[in-house]
Write a structure and sequence with these properties.
Length: about 180
Protein backbone atom coordinates (compact mmCIF):
# COMPACT_ATOMS: atom_id res chain seq x y z
CA UNK A 1 0.00 0.00 0.00
CA UNK A 2 1.44 3.40 -0.96
CA UNK A 3 2.46 5.73 1.86
CA UNK A 4 0.12 8.62 0.92
CA UNK A 5 -2.86 6.28 0.87
CA UNK A 6 -1.84 4.86 4.23
CA UNK A 7 -1.57 8.40 5.67
CA UNK A 8 -5.03 9.26 4.32
CA UNK A 9 -6.59 6.11 5.77
CA UNK A 10 -4.92 6.55 9.16
CA UNK A 11 -5.88 10.23 9.35
CA UNK A 12 -9.53 9.54 8.55
CA UNK A 13 -9.72 6.51 10.85
CA UNK A 14 -8.24 8.61 13.64
CA UNK A 15 -10.81 11.33 13.04
CA UNK A 16 -13.67 8.84 12.98
CA UNK A 17 -12.45 7.20 16.19
CA UNK A 18 -12.11 10.53 17.99
CA UNK A 19 -15.61 11.63 16.95
CA UNK A 20 -17.16 8.33 18.02
CA UNK A 21 -15.34 8.31 21.37
CA UNK A 22 -16.26 11.96 21.98
CA UNK A 23 -19.93 11.34 21.21
CA UNK A 24 -19.96 8.21 23.36
CA UNK A 25 -18.35 9.96 26.32
CA UNK A 26 -20.70 12.97 26.21
CA UNK A 27 -23.86 11.13 25.07
CA UNK A 28 -25.91 12.45 28.03
CA UNK A 29 -25.59 16.02 26.72
CA UNK A 30 -26.36 15.23 23.10
CA UNK A 31 -29.96 15.32 21.89
CA UNK A 32 -31.31 12.53 19.68
CA UNK A 33 -31.55 14.85 16.68
CA UNK A 34 -27.94 15.96 17.05
CA UNK A 35 -26.86 12.34 17.47
CA UNK A 36 -28.69 11.50 14.25
CA UNK A 37 -26.85 14.26 12.40
CA UNK A 38 -23.46 13.12 13.71
CA UNK A 39 -24.12 9.45 12.91
CA UNK A 40 -25.35 10.39 9.44
CA UNK A 41 -22.21 12.46 8.80
CA UNK A 42 -19.89 9.74 10.08
CA UNK A 43 -21.63 6.97 8.12
CA UNK A 44 -21.79 8.93 4.87
CA UNK A 45 -18.22 10.26 4.94
CA UNK A 46 -16.66 6.93 5.90
CA UNK A 47 -18.68 5.13 3.23
CA UNK A 48 -17.75 7.62 0.52
CA UNK A 49 -14.05 7.65 1.34
CA UNK A 50 -13.52 3.94 1.77
CA UNK A 51 -15.91 3.12 -1.08
CA UNK A 52 -13.89 5.36 -3.39
CA UNK A 53 -10.60 3.81 -2.30
CA UNK A 54 -12.00 0.31 -2.73
CA UNK A 55 -13.58 1.22 -6.08
CA UNK A 56 -10.18 2.29 -7.36
CA UNK A 57 -8.41 -0.70 -5.79
CA UNK A 58 -10.91 -3.25 -7.17
CA UNK A 59 -11.19 -1.46 -10.52
CA UNK A 60 -13.33 -3.64 -12.77
CA UNK A 61 -15.04 -5.47 -9.88
CA UNK A 62 -17.86 -3.12 -8.89
CA UNK A 63 -19.67 -5.75 -6.82
CA UNK A 64 -16.79 -6.33 -4.38
CA UNK A 65 -16.00 -2.65 -3.92
CA UNK A 66 -19.69 -1.84 -3.41
CA UNK A 67 -20.20 -4.59 -0.83
CA UNK A 68 -17.08 -3.69 1.13
CA UNK A 69 -17.80 0.05 0.92
CA UNK A 70 -21.36 -0.50 2.14
CA UNK A 71 -20.18 -2.71 5.00
CA UNK A 72 -17.64 -0.12 6.14
CA UNK A 73 -20.24 2.66 5.99
CA UNK A 74 -22.79 0.50 7.85
CA UNK A 75 -20.33 -0.33 10.63
CA UNK A 76 -19.26 3.28 11.19
CA UNK A 77 -22.86 4.51 10.99
CA UNK A 78 -23.95 1.88 13.51
CA UNK A 79 -21.14 2.62 15.96
CA UNK A 80 -21.65 6.40 15.70
CA UNK A 81 -25.41 6.10 16.18
CA UNK A 82 -25.36 3.67 19.11
CA UNK A 83 -24.86 6.31 21.87
CA UNK A 84 -27.88 8.33 20.67
CA UNK A 85 -30.46 5.58 20.21
CA UNK A 86 -32.15 3.48 17.57
CA UNK A 87 -33.15 6.40 15.33
CA UNK A 88 -29.54 7.55 15.10
CA UNK A 89 -28.44 3.97 14.40
CA UNK A 90 -30.94 3.66 11.54
CA UNK A 91 -29.97 7.06 10.16
CA UNK A 92 -26.24 6.35 10.39
CA UNK A 93 -26.54 2.92 8.80
CA UNK A 94 -28.69 4.15 5.92
CA UNK A 95 -26.25 6.99 5.27
CA UNK A 96 -23.33 4.58 5.44
CA UNK A 97 -25.05 2.28 2.97
CA UNK A 98 -25.65 5.14 0.57
CA UNK A 99 -22.14 6.56 1.00
CA UNK A 100 -20.47 3.20 0.45
CA UNK A 101 -22.45 2.64 -2.73
CA UNK A 102 -21.77 6.13 -4.10
CA UNK A 103 -18.08 5.94 -3.21
CA UNK A 104 -17.66 2.57 -4.93
CA UNK A 105 -19.40 3.86 -8.06
CA UNK A 106 -17.24 6.99 -8.08
CA UNK A 107 -14.06 4.96 -7.60
CA UNK A 108 -15.07 2.65 -10.43
CA UNK A 109 -15.87 5.51 -12.83
CA UNK A 110 -12.65 7.44 -12.23
CA UNK A 111 -10.21 7.14 -15.11
CA UNK A 112 -7.07 5.29 -14.09
CA UNK A 113 -5.01 8.35 -15.02
CA UNK A 114 -6.83 10.51 -12.43
CA UNK A 115 -6.67 8.22 -9.40
CA UNK A 116 -4.31 10.51 -7.51
CA UNK A 117 -6.41 13.64 -7.75
CA UNK A 118 -9.73 11.94 -7.07
CA UNK A 119 -8.63 10.09 -3.92
CA UNK A 120 -6.84 13.12 -2.53
CA UNK A 121 -9.79 15.45 -3.21
CA UNK A 122 -12.34 13.06 -1.71
CA UNK A 123 -10.15 12.54 1.34
CA UNK A 124 -9.67 16.29 1.75
CA UNK A 125 -13.44 16.85 1.57
CA UNK A 126 -14.06 14.02 4.03
CA UNK A 127 -11.41 15.32 6.43
CA UNK A 128 -12.85 18.83 6.40
CA UNK A 129 -16.40 17.52 6.83
CA UNK A 130 -15.32 15.38 9.78
CA UNK A 131 -13.59 18.37 11.37
CA UNK A 132 -16.79 20.38 10.89
CA UNK A 133 -18.90 17.53 12.30
CA UNK A 134 -16.70 17.26 15.38
CA UNK A 135 -16.73 21.02 15.88
CA UNK A 136 -20.53 21.11 15.59
CA UNK A 137 -20.97 18.21 18.02
CA UNK A 138 -18.60 19.83 20.48
CA UNK A 139 -20.43 23.16 20.26
CA UNK A 140 -23.83 21.52 20.74
CA UNK A 141 -22.59 19.52 23.72
CA UNK A 142 -21.01 22.62 25.32
CA UNK A 143 -24.39 24.36 25.19
CA UNK A 144 -26.01 21.45 27.07
CA UNK A 145 -23.21 20.44 29.44
CA UNK A 146 -23.04 21.58 33.03
CA UNK A 147 -19.41 20.61 33.50
CA UNK A 148 -16.32 21.66 31.59
CA UNK A 149 -15.46 19.29 28.82
CA UNK A 150 -12.28 18.53 26.96
CA UNK A 151 -12.11 20.70 23.85
CA UNK A 152 -10.32 19.72 20.67
CA UNK A 153 -11.08 23.08 19.16
CA UNK A 154 -9.42 25.35 21.68
CA UNK A 155 -7.07 26.29 18.85
CA UNK A 156 -9.02 25.57 15.64
CA UNK A 157 -6.58 27.30 13.31
CA UNK A 158 -3.81 25.02 14.48
CA UNK A 159 -5.84 21.97 13.48
CA UNK A 160 -6.64 23.45 10.08
CA UNK A 161 -2.99 24.39 9.56
CA UNK A 162 -1.81 20.87 10.38
CA UNK A 163 -4.37 19.29 8.04
CA UNK A 164 -3.44 21.77 5.30
CA UNK A 165 0.26 20.92 5.60
CA UNK A 166 -0.49 17.19 5.55
CA UNK A 167 -2.51 17.52 2.36
CA UNK A 168 0.01 19.87 0.74
CA UNK A 169 2.65 17.25 1.45
CA UNK A 170 0.44 14.50 0.04
CA UNK A 171 -0.15 16.53 -3.11
CA UNK A 172 3.46 16.06 -4.18
CA UNK A 173 3.62 12.31 -3.50
CA UNK A 174 1.86 10.14 -6.11
CA UNK A 175 -0.44 7.27 -5.20
CA UNK A 176 0.43 4.25 -7.33
CA UNK A 177 -1.89 1.29 -6.93
Amino acid sequence: MPLPLLVIIILCLLQLTVIILFITHYRNWLTVMNGMIVSMSVGMTSGILFGTILGVYFHGDLLSSTIYGILIGLVFGFIAGTPSGILAVIDGMLSGLMGGMMGAMFGEMVAMSNIDVSIKLISLFVTMLLILTHYTAETLIQKQATKTLFSFFKYPYTILLIVTFIYLGLFYVPINL
